[in-house]
Amino acid sequence: xKKQDNVxxxxxxxxxxxxxxxxxxxxxPLNSYIESPGTAADLQSFVKIKGHPxxxxxxxxxxxxxxxxxxxxxxxxxxxxxxxxxxSVEDVTxxxxxxTYDRVQKFYMDSSINEAIAVAYNxxxxxxxxxxxxxxxxxxxxxxxFKHDIHVGDTITKVDGHHFNTAQGFQKYIGTKKxxxxxxxxxxxxxxxxxxxxxxxxxxxxxxxGIGIILTNNMQVKTKIPVKVDAGQYGGPSGGLMFSLQIYxxxxxxxxxxxxxxxGTGTINSDGTVGEIGGIDKxxxxxxxxxxxxxxxxxxxxxxxILKYEEDHLTNYQMAKKAAKKxxxxxxxxxVTSFDDAVKYLQTHK
Length: 350
What we know:
globular; five-stranded antiparallel sheet; Ribosomal Protein S5, domain 2; 10 helices; ATP-dependent peptidase activity; six-stranded mixed sheet; alpha+beta; PDZ domain-containing protein; ATP binding; membrane; single chain; Pdz3 Domain
């Protein structure tokens, strides 16, 4: 009986060991991420403009890339699927922790929405004003003397008591100082204003003095006709173009959709120019799965110099065309360099 018990216990141990190994295979997190096609969401539910509902059939669609932490099983699966890619943690997050990465992505989205509102309202000849809040901190460099006070997500509003209306204004003022000169920096975090003073340090790869941060502009827009845009859990700057089209259709009352499902991607600048983004091949697939027949892709001229630095040595438009040919038959990929290009296409191709 004792021998039989030992056999049973040994079998249970083997089973438990196999279960443990299987669990590690399925759920053990690796130091990488898997990127795959995400979703294509109807922007009508995201944009609310007082007195200007979207009355037309069709949809403008916000496309996304799905990002998930890799595990051994999903890693092997991604290796076998051509349209999935494996990226290092550093490439995806820039070395930031999850909370900081999410905060920066949310800012990028909020910033792109502000630009989209301004572009759309200006195109519709509706009143919109911009207010420059200051410098948004994207990263604090290791050699910065401010690293224990200023954090990612803070907005710098003054240096030595001076406010400027562009990042270049701040940089020009700081550039007149010498390395090691104390600088008083006023910043806002969670609605509270603080001021700290520390010496300037050498900016990486230059001899110029600086705070020691990576930055971008923090702008706010105000409109006479109230508009509210809620992007939910989406982050990043790549929705700018599509948000501008949705907002423009509503505020202008012009029917651009004509019953069509229209997807796309690209950043939007204050002058309406459209910029490139990452993962466009996956966004084309997401759009196709959601029934989109038109896909706007940022266009730049594919010179040899540019192609050296492009993902897979293809521009956004080239990659989108390639993905559509293979995975999205019947979808029309339209190259655009600006908001006006997209509007003109929709007005002339009904």
